[in-house]
Design goal:
The chain contains nine helices and eight strands. By secondary structure, it is of the alpha/beta class. An eight-stranded parallel β-barrel has the order 1-2-3-4-5-6-7-8, surrounded by eight helices. Helix 7 links the parallel strand 6 and strand 7. Helix 2 crosses helix 3. The longest helix is centred in the middle third of the chain and has 18 residues. The radius of gyration is 16 Å and the shape is globular. The chain binds SN-glycerol-1-phosphate (1GP). SN-glycerol-1-phosphate (1GP) binds next to strand 8.
Length: 249
Amino acid sequence: MLGRVEKYILEKIVAEKTIHMTLIDPEKITPAQAAIVAESSKSSGTAAIMIGGSTLASQEHLDHIVKAIKEAVDLPTILFPNNASGISKHSDAIWFMSLLNSADQRFLIGAQIQGAPLIKQFNIEPISMGYIIVGQGGTAGVVGKAITIPYDKPNTAVDHALAGKYLGMRFIYLEGGSGVATPVPPEMISAVKKHVGLPLIVGGGIRTREQAVAAAQAGADIIVTGNLIEAVDSKRRIAEIVEGIKQKS
Ligand code: 1GP
């Protein structure tokens, strides 16, 4: 049976074609700021709040952040963990993910084995996802020991995503890396969407409506932005992205 958050995401994709999620990096923010960002993102039309970062170390701080977000908005929270310390009992759901192009057993299955009993104990909804770091990859690529897939090799991304699908993963995430200069190219997004067909998440370096619309037109179902919340006019820019990807134009 589908979990509550996964059902919400899938229904929202059907209703709105492409949806937006806001990523909050707990290390860059206080709980009070996280609450403000969540409220502002909600009013811009974001569908859910993802919480995580490549270097997160303090589970206690994460707990405070998730709690503050939950108190501020009624949007689903989805953890986006970098390892087993990225789990908070206050979250509704977690991307239960494997970094499919990591060279390190820890990011393929090690941290997941460590985290699984906590997820059960805290009754957090796990949403199975294959995570693939492409292009420059940013900090996530380095920390995750990813063998990053060059932007001009869409077929290699397809092969990774297909492997994830055949292993039973229900979402695929093409990650360009937070703050990268060039987001995942539409050619790679459309190849993965066409040949794999799973709900597709795309993020990394998306800052404008045009970039988000290009990703949506190529087949992204979920657009994730993180750094954008730091911009002075983030509320307007996120609203523009949400509006643009709904219409895909
Ligand atoms: C989530 O890493 C991204 O996939 C977020 O990237 O911070 O560049 O939006 P930005």
